[in-house]
Write a structure and sequence with these properties.
single chain; alpha/beta; Rossmann fold; 6 helices; 36% helix; disordered N terminus
Length: 201
């Protein structure tokens, strides 16, 4: 694969956002899978998160050869948009180079799907990001967490840790999502969809 021809036309860096809630009490929650992927990407590039005035923790590095800012909003999920918009302004990132990694109830656990634009599907973090950016046309990396069992409220389900069987598979899932993000930055959306949507789940 070759990098997309439009890559050289954009002037700002890639802004890769991992959604989640701050603090150790939420660290293992399903809702925090985006933040978990960011930790892995930071480890891959040898970076350490530092506090940014945009109310986020960031790592500035290069991903797939491109200037990239990895960012975890310091706010709670429902108000993620304000830090994302502040980072976009500070780093002068194009909306088309903003990648938001988030949990997705409507995808089975282990499933990874990528798209650009679309609705929030009831995800409060996405709703906040869309409202603050004033655009839906950012890239999304959707990480399946499955539906809650029985009559459990989805709001309770996403704030629970992964099950024991899921935790055994989680490192492989996070690794695959991180690979997808690197491919997205390096080769573009269509090539990455072709590679990762077709892969066995």
């Amino acid at each position: 694969m070759t990098p997309p021809e439009t890559d050289g036309l954009a002037t700002g860096p890639w802004l890769v956002i991992g959604l989640g809630n701050p603090g150790p009490a939420y660290a293992g929650n399903r809702h925090n899978v985006g933040s978990m992927v960011l930790d892995l990407l930071a480890e891959r590039v040898g970076g350490r998160f530092r506090s940014h005035r945009g109310r986020a923790d960031v790592v500035e590095s290069r991903l797939a050869g491109a200037r990239t800012v990895l960012a975890k909003p310091g706010s709670f999920m429902n108000t993620s948009g304000a830090p994302v918009a502040a980072l976009r302004t500070f780093f002068k990132a194009d909306v088309g180079r903003i990648v938001v990694i988030h949990d997705e109830l409507d995808l089975p656990f282990e499933t990874v799907r990528l798209k650009i634009g679309g609705g929030d599907n009831g995800h409060n973090g996405l709703r906040s990001v869309t409202a603050s950016l004033g655009s839906r046309e950012y890239l999304r990396v959707r990480v399946g967490i499955g539906r809650p069992p029985g009559r459990m409220d989805p709001a309770d389900f996403v704030l629970r840790d992964f099950s024991v069987p899921e935790r055994k598979e989680l490192p492989f899932v996070l690794d695959r999502v991180a690979d997808a993000v690197e491919s997205l930055v390096g080769y573009g959306l269509e090539a990455t969809q072709n590679a990762f949507h077709a892969s066995p789940q």
